[in-house]
Amino acid sequence: MTPPFDPVADALPLLGHQDRYVRYAGRQLLRRVNRNHWRDAAMALTTPPAASEAQLVLAQTIRVPTAVPPMLDRQLALLQAGVPDEALPGLLRAMHLTMIRAEGVRHTAPYAAIGAALLARFPVGRPLVDRELARTLAFLDTPDALPKLVAYMTAPATHREDQIFTMYCLHAMRAGWEPAERKAVVQWFLASQEQRWRGGASFIGYMKDFWEHFLTVLPPDERQAAEDVMPSFQPNVILTSSGRPAPPGEDTARLSQQELREYLTLDPMAYAGDATRGERVFDKALCSACHRSGTLGQEAGPDLTAVAQRFARTDLLDAILTPSKAISEQWASVEVATRDKKVTVGVIVSETANALTLQPIGGAPVSIPISQILSRKAAAVSPMPEGLLNVLTLREIADLLAFLERTPGP
Length: 410
Hints:
The chain has 410 residues and is an alpha+beta fold. The protein has 17 helices and 7 strands. Among the domains are: 1-105; 257-325 and 386-404, Cytochrome Bc1 Complex, Chain D, domain 2, CATH 1.10.760.
């Protein structure tokens, strides 16, 4: 470029370059120049990728909402002129940003026309393009888009990841649910359970959130029928690691320690426990047999009243899952053998010249005469046993942690 700089002659041609980094540089250059100097020339571009890049930088430089309608009209014209499939994501990105710049105003006429044009092309058979089309159709709430999205999601040829993404789009659509579409989505959720779809730590919660949103669009009779055929997604039902509902009495917390740690530290659902229920779990898991929290429990082990102020959740889980990994000297237990061939293990409560008093886990203090002791040694393991969480469901564990991590009262 040679001075004087001309944005139309020097920068706009960069938007059509085959190298996307050059196109990006062209947009950044134009953003630093008053748009009045290049707006009309940018709006006149007709061929991709230059036209889409021009619409994107125009959207990035909108300063007043009144600039939105002319841009939507131009984007519709580009769409109707026949944008190639591979160029659609660029134009859709410009459309999305333009709609954001509308500041919540829904421009009904161009939105309806854009939606109709996009619906006529969906699906194009390119997963990444189809995702952007589905996202846009859901936002526009285009008439007749819902049955087409449901058909695409439930088609055997659609990859599972794309099915889930389409459900993400569908759960934002509140109107237009006909019986056929409602039934198809129920069957889709049922298939996801029967086929035991798996994912990361929050996958089950993610699917359950979709399900609960979907239930709100069903008439009451269909909602009850849907809950009856999908017990694993009923509110308050705890799922096993396979995603199946836990039968009565099944230990739903018997995951590997790694899976349990990931769930309890990474999944938002694990932070949504109820401290009031957690107080009852504190007793059920026998925590109260040795620990005090507030006015609840005994003092045979560390006081847990304000444990969250001293330890992060990861450290607290270490202490629960592997109690023998690091044993505090203050709470180390001893193993005492007596002349009557009994062995007692517990934390030393007191010791005098005549007697040694131990506090076994879950029992009453035991006083042992010094004269009856044959030997005593430090116990190799913590008095707190491993596996205390095995009797709890995942929700109960989340409730227990909510109880332990609460801010104690005065």
